[in-house]
Amino acid sequence: MYQVKTVSLMKQSKEKSLVQDVLLVVGAACAAGVVGALILAMLTLLVAPAMAGEQGAAMRQITTDEVQRGSLLLKMVSGGTMVDAPMVKTDVDIRISGMLARVSVSQQFHNPGKEWVEGIYVFPLPEDAVVDRMRIRIGERVIEGEIQETEQAKATYEKAKKAGKKASLLRQERPNIFTSAMANIAPGEMVTVEIEYQQSLHYDQGRFRLRFPLVVAPRYIPGVPLGEDNVAAFNGTGWAQNTDQVPDASNVTPHVVGPVAGPVNPVSIKVVLDAGFPLARLESSYHAVEIVRDENDLHKLQLIGHKVATDRDFELVWEPQSGQQPHAALFVEQWEDKEYALLMVMPSAQEKQAPKQVSRELILVVDTSGSMHGESIRQARDALKMALQRLTPADSFNVIQFNTNSHSLFSGAVVANPHNITRALAYVDGLDAEGGTEMLSAVNLALDGKTHENRLRQVVFLTDGSVGNEQALFAAIQQRLGSSRLFTVGIGSAPNSFFMTRAASFGRGAFSYIGKIDEVKEKMTALFTKLESPVLTDIQVTWPEGEMAEMWPQRVPDLYLGEPVVVVASLTNMSGEVVVEGRLNGQPWQRVLQLQGGGRNPGVHLLWARRKIAELMDGRARGRAESEVREDVLKVALRHKLVSKYTSLVAVDNTPVRPLEAHLQTKGVPVNLPKGWTANRVFGAMPQTATSAPMHLLIGLFALLGACLIGSRRKLAS
User: Fold this and answer.
1) One Pfam family of this protein, by short name (predicted)?
2) 537 near 583, Cβ under 8 Å?
């Protein structure tokens, strides 16, 4: 009886303890909820003013007065609402002669509000554009811009802005992203900023292509947010915070309007094409155009429609008639005390040789981040399937996908037998797009840094390139490439052309673009023709004896089938002969050209300067000190008067227009979401991709609260 009673008492004690535990957990949960709510409230009070300061006046709270007086309200998918945001209408005039293009971009800033405004417009240009002119047009008056070091140009602009003068500042954020700032736009006023640049055209596979980007796609911004003491050189108006990995993130992430608002910032494009040969094909890849051929054999094109949306790249393609393809071209210019030459040499089709059979390892890397959702991921899946189906039993392969994390289908490259190909095709069918764009981990996974004897290792990246940390990626490619070759395929309506071209250059490969499903077969066939065809290697260009030519690039990269040798050089005397030689599929190859008879074209010296600056900037990824690069770039940019990372164009009207007592608001110009993108896959609930310091604090507080509860529970249990 005693033993039974003891057991009964112990049972009652345990039941009582269990009830106490349940009550304790419920009470603790309620307390945690109250404490959590208080913490969130305090953080909101602390963080909201700081975030409001970062976003600027354009993203402030909307007042009842503003709604009543009919302000223009735009909902941003990147977060927040803009009040009376300035808008920009862009007119583009492109004049093409042979391999050169001169482009004028007219940006009409409109202030729809009732306050004085400084408009900040982040916009794209081709990655090889040589911007050398900017001016403000106010009625009949024109104010020309002048080139200055970036910090000096900023000081000149800020001084004029504070004095109430109209001023414009044009600076480069990336080689393909620029910011145009226009100060002191009066209520209801329109002010025009005109920009001009020079560009050489891309010739590949017997076709000329010209791309004009129309929207800066949202960038994935990795890293930890910087404090107020570590801001970038310019205070940006973008949706992202500056981070340790992308210190200028706020400068390259313009706010994005939602689909309800409809497209903003319309564009018109006109092209005058003087090809210099009869055409077999002339077409716009993605936009409807009207084409007229005049009596001088000039082709004139323009976009159809008055309000064409700036939501995808414009591309023009033309092809010579059979037998009219250029085999060599020379464009020259005398500028100051130098002669400048742009030289193109194309190996003829008769020089093709049967490729040497080499064991090949193909690594297919695909971007499955949120920006690839929709049309882009469908294009990528089709491209991957086509690549897999072209593999032979002698090949090996692997498939890697990346978003917030990276994942490879196999632990290493496997033989391309039917079983492995079938498994890979099923894997590709299951690919979906979501999450961030942590490309660096994919680069490290795909490139092993090794030398592969008797095996050709080729890595193909399919991505839209929507990242802000390009420089870190270039450095990783440079360090880990080994004997591999890296090829990039730009996917979607607005790929990051700067990343695509430079990554392929660092990777000793080639680049291409796929803008719609209909192009997958054509573009991937062209890419694999290159992968499977002989390469022109060990290319040397010898200028006339005694001539101290400065040529860029200094080391001509290897070329693939259908690609020409293209170099620019400065010389003291444009005479004699130039010899271009190399090895085509292991056999000697040579061309001898006379330096006479080239077409005289203004702007060749600008192309030379731009190519030299690009090579100097690449030195950063190879470990050269930023200060040394800056010094060398400044010498070239200031002499040739062009925009670079370290130089900007600034224009100031000396007549004050804004009363000093009138308040000036800084507002960013919102942009469209690229065509085919899905907003909630890109931004989700929080547009900033990096975890903020307040969030770290909140997580820490909850962790501390959890530790206290666990400690209390253990003490009670003991």
Assistant:
1) VIT
2) yes
Structure tokens at 510: 């080639």
- Structural domain total, the chain: 5
Token pair, residue 333, equals 């210019």
Mean pLDDT score, 266-290: 97
Scan for tokens 């894997």, then name that residue.
427
Q: Which of 535, 580, 539 shows the shortest CA–CA distance to 559?
A: 535
One domain for residues 419 and 473 = yes
| Peptide linkage before 320 cis (omega within 30 of 0) | no
Q: How far apart are the first and last CA of the chain?
A: 29
CA contacts within 13 A on the Cβ side of 702: 13
Same domain, 189 and 293: yes
Complete DSSP assignment for 300-338 = EEEESSSSB-SSS-EEEEEEEPTT---SEEEEEEEETTE
Q: Which domain holds residue 597?
A: 328-350+536-640
How does pLDDT run across 322-376, given as a tens digit for each residue? 889 888 999 999 999 999 999 999 987 555 555 556 679 999 999 999 999 999 9
CA dihedral over 466, 469, 471, 474, signed as positive or negative: negative
Among 143-152, 226-235, 493-502, which is the least confidently predicted range?
A: 226-235
pLDDT digits (tens, 9 = 90+) for 651-679: 999 999 999 999 999 999 999 999 999 99
Lowest-pLDDT range of 15-19, 170-174, 598-602, 645-649: 15-19
The CA distances from residue 598 to 166, 272, 346, 594, 694, in Å, are 43, 22, 16, 9, 63
64 located within any domain? no
474/503 Cα distance (integer angstroms): 6
- Reference 452, options 355, 586, 361, 557; nearest CA is 361
Residues 6+ apart with CB under 8 A from 566: 200, 203, 342, 343, 344
Q: What is the pLDDT of residue 50?
A: 35
Task: Please tell me whether residues 215 and 229 are part of one structural domain.
Answer: no
Is the residue at 596 inside a domain? yes
In a domain, 646, yes or no: no
Region 317-326 average pLDDT? 93
> Percentages helix, strand, coil for the chain, rounded to the nearest 5?
30, 35, 35
